[in-house]
Amino acid sequence: MTDTKKRPEGMSPQTIDVREPAANGAAAAFRYLTGQFRQIGLFLALIVIVAFFQITTGGITLQPDNVSNIIIQNSYILILAVGMVMVIIAGHIDLSVGSVVAFVGAVSGVLMTRVGLPFWLAIILCLVLGAIIGAWQGFWVAYFGIPAFIVTLAGMLIFRGAAFIALGNQQISPFPDPFRAIGSGFLPTLGDSGYEPITVIIGLLAIVSIVATGLRGRLTRKKYALEDEPIWWFSLKLVAMIGLVLLVTLLLASYNGTPVVLIILGVLVVVYTAVMGRTVFGRHIYAIGGNLAAATLSGVKTKRVTFLIFVNMGVLAALAGMVFTAGLNLASPSAGNGFELDAISAVFIGGAAVTGGIGTIPGAIIGGLIIGVLNNGMSILGIGIEYQQLVKGLVLLAAVAFDFYNKRRGGSR
């Protein structure tokens, strides 16, 4: 169907297709999806990897016990990724976290088994120790001006040596049951049949929180007349997240229930997502990573923010060290080898920019899950560690190359 539009004298009428608005709407939707391709690709990559291993392992990947194992076995990497993404957004790097994991794990073992401190006091002291370690490294980076790469490379050697000294080049085991529960325990269960009710309740509360947060954010953007995502995309994304949470909830509820470390991770993700998205401190981290000179001229206390970022990284590395030690029920001076590489890989796979200024907490978590599923799936298939390292290296290179491609494409327009 066509219509005519009146033109000024001297111009002929132009035939206009009334289907043009629909066509424009489709084009706008395509442009929006293109702009969101990085985030869409991340979710799709996780789904494709899970589906691939679900098929090739004969359905083992999504077995309830295996899903629980994936969460527990990768919890310390995910905790490290939460802190690492903040460091990388600010334009720095931390190569020492694996050694800090080993050192704090060693100290926790000494405090509980040799000194005889209660597990809760040992946990508090180890978190304080992590803050001191972060403050030590943050001082040299923020106030002395030494590049973080050099400072944390030195820290990698220092704290690895300190772990050997603390343990006397030996291993310590076992630990008290309440401490072990941090790394490998589950919340108390109710009933022996069907789905575990506490896990179901936690899952439903998480779904309600996701919906409320999404709606509140959308209403806030509308209130201030900010550009918002199309309603269809908002709804689709919300349904996908609800479906994912519901699937994991039902799988966990049909096994041993909720791992304690999953509660710890959930609290960290909620708190740090709020810090990065809704606080002045979070905005300052993005500003420093985006343009340090502009942030300084804008009045941002760049040295103080950088110092606090490394203090925070030290605390989270200490927490990861205790989770790993508790889950393994063993303090070893060789613990944490390569953890810094997995944490950094998770952050970059999760969408953080190499040059800083870009990245999210949820993205880092998804990146960590991609690595975790890859490790788990290849181990089930009996693939050797050498090929696992090869695959993870290729995935990391692809993620970084994609980031550079997007920047060049954006700059060429």
Give a quick rundown of the structure:
The chain has helices at residues 20-35, 37-56, 64-73, 75-89, 97-115, 119-142, 148-167, 177-184, 197-223, 231-253, 260-278, 280-290, 292-297, 302-328, 339-349, 361-380, 385-411; strands at residues 2-5, 14-17. The chain is mostly helical.
Structure description:
With 413 residues, the chain is an all-alpha fold. The protein has two domains: 40-51 and 61-185 and 260-411, no CATH class; 187-258. It is 73% helix and 2% strand. Helix 3 (64-73) crosses helix 10 (231-253). The protein is globular and about 65 Å long.
Number of strands: 2
pLDDT under 50 segments (min length 5)? 1-22
The main sheet comes to: 2 strands, antiparallel
* Number of helical regions: 17
Name the descriptors.
413 residues, mainly alpha, 2 domains, two-stranded antiparallel ribbon, 73% helix, globular, disordered N terminus
Topology (SSEs and partners):
Blueprint: E1 2-5, E2 14-17, H1 20-35, H2 37-56, H3 64-73, H4 75-89, H5 97-115, H6 119-142, H7 148-167, H8 177-184, H9 197-223, H10 231-253, H11 260-278, H12 280-290, H13 292-297, H14 302-328, H15 339-349, H16 361-380, H17 385-411
Antiparallel strand pairs: 1-2
